[in-house]
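A reminder from the course coordinator: this example appears on the midterm review sheet, so study it carefully.

Given structure:
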């Protein structure tokens, strides 16, 4: 990491440590109102039996993070229903988590990473953080101005310096098919790259297979008209 990266807090965009992605306890966001009833889920079980898209949210109230979630949630029918990929959002703070999930993640599956284990894995053992200086970057300003046009609500509460990212996991011990580490505020994975990765690891669902079979079936023909054979 160079001196410029140290000053600006540019996140390391290296390889995610696959081993560190395992055994991270995650609390369902839906259970945060009743911690006593919450049963932690171990991270690696999210992709144990099927491919998974894991998006690490920098801050639940962040406009750019909400926009990313909104875009991905809008592709749920394709990613989850047709490709058979489990879609999971991971937040790093409790504040605003439920509002984020209900209003921007389409009430999809989401977990609170209290120990920041997945965030550390993406930084090869260290939480990746940006600097407030990045708010002056033309690229960050342009992203924010573009995101404002979406009309999505946002707030400035919580720790906004932690960097997130996105992973597309193969099932079981298959490893990481695609990763994108955020290096600046709002630097999200290009949706076309995400969809391409999802297509590579896709396990077509029963509904998708049935739809494909229906599309491939020959069109029914009208019964031939009866011919009057009277002489």
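Designed residues:
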């Amino acid at each position: 990491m160079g001196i410029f990266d140290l000053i600006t807090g540019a996140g390391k965009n290296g390889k995610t440590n696959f081993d560190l992605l395992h055994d991270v306890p995650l609390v369902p966001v839906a259970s945060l109102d009743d911690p006593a009833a919450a049963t932690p889920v171990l991270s690696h079980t999210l992709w144990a039996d099927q491919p998974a898209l894991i998006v690490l949210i920098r801050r639940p109230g962040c406009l750019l993070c909400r926009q990313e979630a909104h875009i991905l949630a809008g592709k749920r029918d394709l990613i989850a229903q047709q490709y058979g990929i489990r879609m999971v959002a991971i937040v790093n703070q409790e504040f605003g988590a439920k509002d984020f999930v209900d209003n921007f993640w389409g009430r999809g599956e989401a977990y609170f990473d209290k120990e920041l284990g997945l965030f550390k894995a993406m930084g090869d053992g260290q939480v990746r953080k940006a600097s407030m200086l990045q708010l002056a970057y033309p690229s960050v300003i342009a992203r924010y101005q573009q995101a404002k046009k979406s009309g999505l609500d946002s707030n400035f509460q919580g720790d906004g310096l932690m960097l997130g990212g996105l992973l597309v996991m193969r099932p079981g011990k298959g490893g990481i098919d695609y990763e994108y580490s955020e290096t600046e505020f709002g630097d999200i994975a290009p949706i076309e790259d995400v969809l391409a990765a999802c297509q590579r690891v896709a396990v077509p669902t029963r509904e998708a297979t049935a739809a494909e079979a229906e599309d491939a079936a020959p069109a029914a023909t009208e019964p031939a008209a009866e011919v009057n054979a009277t002489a």
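Confidence is low (pLDDT under 50) at residues 1-13, 224-231. The chain is about 30% helix and 15% strand.
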